[in-house]
Amino acid sequence: MVDGADGGRPARDLRMVVAAHAASTYGSYLNLVALGLFTLEVTGSAVQTGLFMAVRMAAGFLMGPVSGLLAGRCRRTRLMIGADVLSAVTLALLVAAPDGARTGMLYALAVVLGCGQTLWGVALRSELPELAGPERRARANARLVAARSVAMLLGFASAGILVAQLGYEVAFLLDAGTYVLSAGLLARVAARRPATAEPGPAAPAGPRALAGFGTLRTVAPVVVAMIGVRAADAFGSASHNVGIPVQASLVRPDSPAGYAAVFLTCWAVGSLVAGRWCARLAARTGGVGSPRSFGVATCLMSVFFVLAFTDPPLWLLVPLTVAAGAADGYAEISYTTRLQAVDEPRRARLFGFASAAQNAGFGLGMVGCAAALDRVAPLTVVVVAHGAAFVTALAFLLVQTFRPAHRHGPPSPRPVEVTP
Known about the structure:
Blueprint: H1 8-43, H2 46-71, H3 76-96, H4 102-132, H5 137-166, H6 168-186, H7 207-211, H8 213-216, H9 221-251, H10 256-285, H11 291-308, H12 314-339, H13 344-372, H14 378-402
Helix pairs in contact: 1-2, 1-4, 1-5, 1-6, 2-4, 2-13, 3-4, 3-6, 4-13, 5-6, 5-10, 5-12, 9-10, 9-11, 9-12, 9-13, 9-14, 10-12, 11-12, 11-14
């Protein structure tokens, strides 16, 4: 895999995976907007709309450990293709369903999309070191973040236009087409069977191993701590996701959609900048960041998001949200790259547990922050939620600062002591 990022079949496979990720991400952000609006129109109930999102997040949470188990045993590109095809078929069935059956189809789609996106993400991050080569995984992760940021920009920008001009059915069929395109690109990637664990101490079998707890006992403590920080980060991120529409209606009642578009676009631009910068840094140095820089980036992200909700003027809002996106993108790249340093037999289950932890943090944040927004201002909600993320990241950073330096890296074989 040494030449994985430079030429030959591995490089082509990596390009196909990045392109598939971009296509799938575009569809995800397109349906994030279109499905929310469509659910509200079909059910006529804000409660049912919230329930749809809750079902989708719960499905993703429950699928995390299962995804880790599947990605550790099955050919991962085929799992990703299966998730794409199932998502496309379910979207097509929603379009074809009669009016009376659409509510039921919506909940079926929520389960399929929640499970499919989790499986896709766990399989992708578990497989990427084998595609790019272990020394180029940071560069590959940076390329994925950059591709995702562009896809997010296009998804948000086109969703409103497609729904308004062409209707929900066309938007859903286009969404299904992005999943088909992703599956077609992945079909051109070599389907490699995961490596099996070598003889030695194994993680406990049974439900604990399925949940990922057995794997956590076998990895470096810093990895477990980073997963905890990322879950707290997801909890904080939920606050600005649910708070942006409310904040927009309060500070820009004449144009809330425009305010939200500026906020989200600047966040995506910042994430894109981080992805491009990290890719160049990794090309020069072979790596990106450290546990300490991950902690610093997470702290900065929370600070910038809180400042963005203080109703600053536009000339200040733009750099604040760009900085928040850049810090978030850098933290994600550092985090993913560090988890990928775990050897392959344990990597898939570790990512399955990490995905469940992040989904749990985001889901709890969505529910709690949405309920709090009925009683307090968006700034207060964001301060509390991102404050929790900041404190968690700061504690992690302090621990990493005062721990011995040799304990920051991946676990290595214990040296044999020789007595004179």
